[in-house]
Every structure is written in structure tokens, then in C-alpha cells.
Amino acid sequence: MHQIYDFAVIGAGAAGLSAAQYGARANLNTIVIEELAPGGQALFIDKLENYPGILEPINGLELAERMQRQAEQFGSSFFEASALSVRKEKGHFIIETSAGPLESLTVLIATGARHRRLDIPGEQEFVGKGVSYCATCDGPFFKGKRILVVGGGDSACDEAIYLSKLSDKIVMIHRRDRFRAQKALSSRVLSNPSIRVLFNTVAKEIKGDSKVRSVVLENTVSHELTEEPFDGIFIFVGSTPQTAFLKDIGVQFDESGYILTNPNMQTSIAGLFAAGDVRATPFRQIVTAAADGAIAARSASDYIDEQRGQTYR
Ligand code: NAP
User: Is 180 in the pocket of ligand 1 (CB under 6 A)?
Assistant: First the structure.
């Protein structure tokens, strides 16, 4: 007879890995499905300095590896595959994956969100030739070079600060007249002598030959266009939730496509939970994703107990 898991976690970012640890500790037969290396967005963090209790800044990859080992130590198993769809049949969930179907009593969606694009001429053409979405991956290629950073959120500020250690020729543009980022980060950008900030400015076109040479900028107030030479353009304009594989199950989303949950991480479908960046939440951090995962695992455990007519609390 094929195996029926208690708790199937789709996505091994901070939310999924934390849920896997809590799920396994709650004695749930837990499997984590991930198509890439565990870590999610944390993999892009060079130095994580705001996780409570971590005094020496830790690399996002290292934290993810530790979280995976911890989940495995408590008995979670990991399955490398892409989730293609999720459906509910006779009270159980069937997850179709690129490596075959899995069956589980509960499912946690922890697939996170992927970087958004500007959709301007030249962006697609110059990916890998000067256009990047990851400063820690590609920043070292632009040591001492002219770098444009686009965006006004925490990611853009974090990454501009990281890039300022590699070059003192950084221009950061944001479409509004103030940053969206947390104050601590935005003030560090504004006081950084290596970063020139241009508010009310958008990128209209990326130009080059075999690599990026310049970017056309527009002042959104005066509508004046200028062309400035750049070697690299780093784009951090938010993210899009990874939910395409959920189109058949009828779960409820907010207007931006993030999954709606109650405070117990329960979605609109009984037994289906969501945690971390993929759910509608006001603050997306590793610490909040990890907390979501812990709550989701406990809710999954409660749900299974209820289904079996057992209540311990
Ligand atoms: P975000 O908070 O959604 O910010 C996206 C930024 O890009 C906003 O400033 C937005 O402008 C701008 N933007 C969006 N579309 C644009 C477009 N088409 N053209 C130009 N600009 C555009 O995304 P994020 O910075 O990636 O952060 C995602 C989540 O992760 C947040 O919850 C954040 O707090 C968290 N995070 C935390 C840390 C940290 O604590 N160290 C680091 C990274 C990320 P508007 O402001 O005008 O909307």
C-alpha cells in the first residue's frame, strides 16, 4: 500500500523548514517537497543580522542548511520535485509532482515568492549580461563598476548597502519620493557616501551591446529623460507569490495573489495551510516566516486530531 503522509510541506524556505521541524516534533509523518536547494529567499541574504538571538551575522544559506538538518534530525524527509497541482479527494490531498504523486492528510503551501521584473526594453535581453536580481550572487562581478539599483523596499536598500562594499559608484532610483523600506535600512542608504539616491525616478530602457552600457532614466515629476552610463543594473522591485500550481483547488487569494489565511495559517480549504511569503501578511521576514511555519504545523496536528476524533488540549 502506498504511503499516506500526515503533513506535506511544499517549499523549503524558512516557513517550510520551520514547519517541517515542528511537524516532525509533533509526531507527524512529515515530507518536504522542494524543487531547488532548501533556503528560499534566505539564500540571497549575504549577512542576516536581524534574526533574534543571532549576534554574529549569519549567511542565509548556512541558516537554511542548519534548519534543514534540524528538521531531518527530528524525522522529516525531503523529496526533490516540483509540485504541479494539489487536489482534495475523499478528505485526503493528492499532490501531483514532477516525480510522481504524493498523498497526505494535510498540506502546507510554503512556496514563497519570486522577484518581480520591470518589464522594460533591454531587461530580458541583458539578464546575465549586466541585469541581475541577486546582489550576493552577481555583485562581485561589478567591483568598482557603475551600478544602478532599482527599488525602494527592504531588499533594494539591503542590496544597495551590500553593493556599496564593492563599489562607490552606486545610483539608487525609486519611483516615489520616499522609501518603503524600514527606517533603519533607508537611513543607512541615505547616509552612505557610495550611494547616490534619486527619488521620483524610473528606468525606461536598458541599452548595451554584448553587455549593459547605459540606462535611460525618467524623472516622474518633470518627465525629463536622461541616459546614464552603467555596467550593471540590480532590480529589487518586490515579488510575486508562487501559486500557479494551486489553480485547480479553489483556495482564496487576496487582490495581489497572496493566499488568504486565518491566524492559524488555515486557508479557505480545511486541512490546507499556507505560511511565509506566499500568504497575505503585512511583514515578510525570515523570523515571521519561521513563526508562520511553527503555527501551521501545530494547526495541521490539531486538524488531524480533530479528524480522528482525538483532542488533547
Ligand atoms: P517590497 O517591500 O514589495 O518593495 C518593492 C519596492 O519596489 C517598492 O519600493 C515598490 O515601490 C518598488 N516597485 C514595485 N514595482 C515597481 C516597478 N514596476 N517599478 C519600480 N519600482 C517598483 O519588496 P522587497 O523589498 O523585495 O521586500 C519583500 C518583503 O521582504 C518585505 O516584506 C520586506 O520587509 C522583506 N525583506 C526584509 C529584509 C530585512 O528585514 N532585512 C530584507 C529584504 C526583504 P513603492 O514603494 O512605490 O510601492
Answer: yes
